[in-house]
């Protein structure tokens, strides 16, 4: 059993930048600009978490928890500003404004139950997983105590499967999803990094999200630099797909995809060089460099 308490106030952007110093961007064609609402909103949170777990064996366990939480958002615009600016406000900014405003000042008490399964085997030859599967499925229910504490339900899942093809080749599949009507700011950001590769950074958002990815991973070269330093190059063929929307808004569900190929070099850091075609540029191979392991 464990417990923690949190009382903090911070701007969202503190936790949203990547190794390049990028912050969440708008979708194409405005992808050269940072999102205004998300990057300029502050959050004040007071919460406590109490949880425990029960292991069935070394691969499976269940977790139980309870978490009271209050969040307040300090938005950079007012209703008067939004009314005055009208249609000049980008759609994603309007979605976040409505979402944070509807979440403001809510105090929720949530009860969570999760099932966790993990049989993944790792290998140095693949820079990570080689075989096995992993699953985390969680549901949360919040009581409606008064007008400042609405009832809600949240379901989350993250499932991964790795199929070994040889000592250094594998096929990997991942699915992740969130469906929540919690009026307290739970949402998912996708795009860039290893989700919807070669999309503008964190340009896809919602609290009703489904994301899937498949990869074929294989060796390309295994040499020794200066006859002493091991140097491996691995290749990937990948495809990503996502559905995303915010509950209770009138914007349509976004359907986004990308596919392509990449090279990964682990020279002190896992460096990825990736080329992809995307929904917004289906006839063009876009290049992206990122640092980080694949899922």
Description:
The chain is built from three helices and 15 strands. It has 295 residues and is mainly β. The protein has one domain: Porin, CATH 2.40.160.50. The strands form two sheets. Strands 1, 2, 3, 4, 5, 6, 7, 8, 11, 12, 13, 14 and 15 form a 13-stranded antiparallel β-sheet that branches. It starts with a strand and ends with a strand.
Structure characteristics:
two-stranded antiparallel sheet, 13-stranded antiparallel β-sheet, mainly beta, Porin, 295 residues
First-residue to last-residue Cα separation: 29 Å
| Largest β sheet strand count, sense and barrel closure | 13 strands, antiparallel
Topology as a string of helices (H) and strands (E)? EHEEHHEEEEEEEEEEEE
Number of strands: 15
> What does the radius of gyration come to?
21 Å
Number of structurally distinct domains: 1
What is the general shape? globular
CATH class reads Mainly Beta
β content, as a range?
Answer: over 45%
Could you name the CATH topology?
Answer: Porin
The computed structural class is mainly beta
What layout of secondary structure does this protein have?
Elements: E1 2-11, H1 36-39, E2 42-55, E3 60-74, H2 79-85, H3 91-103, E4 106-118, E5 121-123, E6 128-142, E7 152-164, E8 170-180, E9 188-190, E10 204-206, E11 208-225, E12 229-245, E13 254-267, E14 269-278, E15 281-291
Antiparallel strand pairs: 1-2, 2-3, 3-4, 4-6, 5-6, 6-7, 7-8, 8-11, 9-10, 11-12, 12-13, 13-14, 14-15
């Amino acid at each position: 059993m464990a417990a923690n308490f949190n009382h903090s106030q911070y701007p969202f952007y503190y936790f949203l930048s990547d190794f390049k110093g990028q912050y969440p961007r708008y979708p194409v064609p405005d992808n050269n600009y940072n999102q205004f609402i998300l990057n300029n909103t502050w959050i004040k949170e007071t919460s406590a978490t109490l949880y425990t777990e029960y292991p069935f064996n070394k691969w499976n366990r269940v977790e139980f928890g309870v978490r009271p939480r209050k969040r307040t958002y300090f938005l950079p615009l007012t209703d008067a500003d939004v009314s005055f600016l009208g249609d000049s406000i980008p759609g994603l900014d309007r979605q976040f404004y409505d979402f944070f405003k509807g979440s403001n000042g809510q105090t929720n008490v949530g009860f969570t139950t999760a099932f966790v399964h993990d049989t993944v085997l790792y290998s140095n030859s693949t820079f990570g997983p080689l075989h096995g599967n992993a699953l985390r499925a969680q549901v949360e229910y919040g009581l409606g105590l008064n007008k400042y504490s609405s009832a809600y339900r949240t379901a989350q899942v993250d499932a991964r499967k790795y199929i070994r093809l040889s000592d250094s080749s594998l096929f990997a599949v991942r699915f992740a999803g969130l469906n929540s009507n919690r009026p307290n700011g739970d949402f998912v950001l996708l795009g860039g990094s290893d989700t919807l590769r070669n999309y503008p950074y964190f340009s896809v958002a919602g609290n009703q999200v489904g994301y899937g990815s498949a990869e074929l991973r294989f060796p390309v070269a295994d040499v020794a630099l200066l006859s002493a330093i091991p140097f491996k190059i691995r290749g990937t063929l990948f495809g990503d797909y996502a559905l995303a929307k915010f509950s209770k808004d009138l914007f349509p569900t976004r359907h986004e995809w990308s596919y392509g190929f990449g090279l990964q070099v682990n020279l002190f850091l896992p460096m990825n060089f990736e080329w992809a075609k995307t929904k917004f540029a289906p006839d063009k191979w876009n290049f992206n460099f990122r640092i980080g392991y694949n899922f």
